[in-house]
Amino acid sequence: MHFRRIRLAGFKSFVDPVELRIDDGLTGVVGPNGCGKSNLLEAIRWVMGESSAKSMRGGGMEDVIFAGTDRRPARDAAHVTLHLDNSSRRAPAQFNDSDDLEVVRHIERGLGSAYRVNGRDVRQKDVQLLFADAATGAHSPALVSQGRIGAIIAAKPQDRRLLLEEAAGISGLHVRRKDAEQRLRAAETNLTRLDDVLQGLS
Ligand code: ATP
């Protein structure tokens, strides 16, 4: 699945709505210090379901909302919209009914953040799995931020394995395995309870 366009509004330093086209192949973001290169990368990770405020260089998730400057007041909300090309139909079944996917995440002060895919409200987990299956999750090695190469070289083998799993698109399987194990445990508890009830009846 290719990223086609990204639209930001009220996100960190991108206070006014801005839309950027993302072409095939390698995309580099260049510009002077402080112009918002890292903020842009963070916007992509955020819309893909990043849940750690720390990895967004903030104390809390609301820190992604434009905080104001000497000349402009702070905003109360931030929106990021990512358009994906799903013509290869690799999206999970629930999203696989169109060639284009529009993933939106928005956050409002005091109200938290929510997600929509093609206009439908979805859970954070659904969005995370959508990208994990496409090998482009929020921690994907396809997003190379400053210092990332050095960090990968110095990473412990376990951390490098996580990177490889993300690149192979199998990290979503771990989430599903955890879900399945939880359901299995719940079923086992129910069976034990059923045994108790049956013994009480006999
Ligand atoms: P460098 O090359 O120095 O790493 P960069 O191009 O990656 O810089 P960013 O780190 O993306 O730049 O952007 C930093 C700018 O974003 C700073 O001017 C900072 O004040 C601004 N900024 C970050 N968060 C917010 C926010 N919530 N509201 C308003 N501005 C913000």
TrEMBL record:
Q: What is the species of this protein?
A: Sphingosinicella xenopeptidilytica
Free-text domain note: Contains large globular domains required for ATP hydrolysis at each terminus and a third globular domain forming a flexible hinge near the middle of the molecule. These domains are separated by coiled-coil structures.
What stretch of the complete protein does the chain hold?
Answer: 1 to 202 of 1151
By sequence similarity, the record places it as follows: Belongs to the SMC family.
Subunit (UniProt): Homodimer.
> Binding positions for ATP?
P32, N33, G34, C35, G36, K37, S38, N39
Its recorded name reads Chromosome partition protein Smc
- Compartment annotation: Cytoplasm
Functional note: Required for chromosome condensation and partitioning.
